[in-house]
Amino acid sequence: MTYLTRILETKSGEVAELKKQEPERRYREMRGELPAPRDFRSAIASRDGGINLIAEVKKASPSRGVLVEDFRPLDIAARYAELGASAFSVLTDRHYFQGSPDYLKAITQQFSIPVLRKEFIIDESQIYETRLMGADAALLIVAALAPSQLRDYLQLFAELGLHALVEVHDRRELDIAIEQGSTIVGVNNRDLRDFTVDLMTSVNLRRDYPEGVLAVAESGLKRRDDVLLMQQAGFDAALIGEGLLTSEELREFAWG
Ligand SMILES: O=C(O)c1ccccc1NCC(=O)[C@H](O)[C@H](O)COP(=O)(O)O
């Protein structure tokens, strides 16, 4: 069983609980009162060949364990805003990443920078929940969804005014993402079977992106040269968690 399969099994149980709270009905009752989502796509699109930062607020991960003992998400987000982050990514999964929807809500309320919900979405109810939470965008993982499900979810995202970062690991998944209508595609450099990281996964797949699809390099970027490699390969944005906590070089990078 891959780690992703394990995570998705846990999510099935969480979704059963979530459905009891009827997020779709709550969304329909509250939609007039919800603030308009901020434009995640425009925020991360490269201008003049620069590369934008999607800064991930991450307490722990399956591959690295606890990254920050004294975790203060608003302080971390403030530091990332100072660095010039174009968007935040906030983990809301409690079980594997020690994240929380409360962290996301607090960050959306405090900052004007668009926020991506980093979650393992396998059901429509989570998309309504994402909108109710105040996120501007969320992750969809091709390996976690049937192609028709991906298409339906992208349509629901658009109806709710949300953007989707669609994550792929190889050429087959990139083709599915494009065929189903994705307009922002991220390549995860981390192999979710054994957690090894290979930055060439992003570099090699970038050549196969069609015109007009935004490209995000995800995971394992730890050094200035890693980011420059992604910039030279033509990525619009780099999504970075651990590296921002550990690398001075990345904190001094001229983003955007
Ligand atoms: O980070 C992990 O260990 C992990 C394990 C299993 C599934 C997903 C995982 N990470 C989710 C992410 O997308 C990363 O947090 C994100 O790309 C940032 O990665 P990094 O810069 O290496 O912290």
Automatic annotation (TrEMBL):
It catalyses: 1-(2-carboxyphenylamino)-1-deoxy-D-ribulose 5-phosphate + H(+) = (1S,2R)-1-C-(indol-3-yl)glycerol 3-phosphate + CO2 + H2O. PROSITE patterns: IGPS (PS00614). Residues 4-253 form the Indole-3-glycerol phosphate synthase domain. One of its GO terms (molecular function) is phosphoribosylanthranilate isomerase activity. Keywords: Amino-acid biosynthesis, Aromatic amino acid biosynthesis, Decarboxylase, Lyase, Tryptophan biosynthesis. Signal peptide: none annotated. Its EC number is 4.1.1.48. GO terms for biological process: L-tryptophan biosynthetic process. Pathway: Amino-acid biosynthesis; L-tryptophan biosynthesis; L-tryptophan from chorismate: step 4/5. It holds the Pfam family IGPS. Belongs to the TrpC family. This is Indole-3-glycerol phosphate synthase. It comes from Chlorobaculum limnaeum.
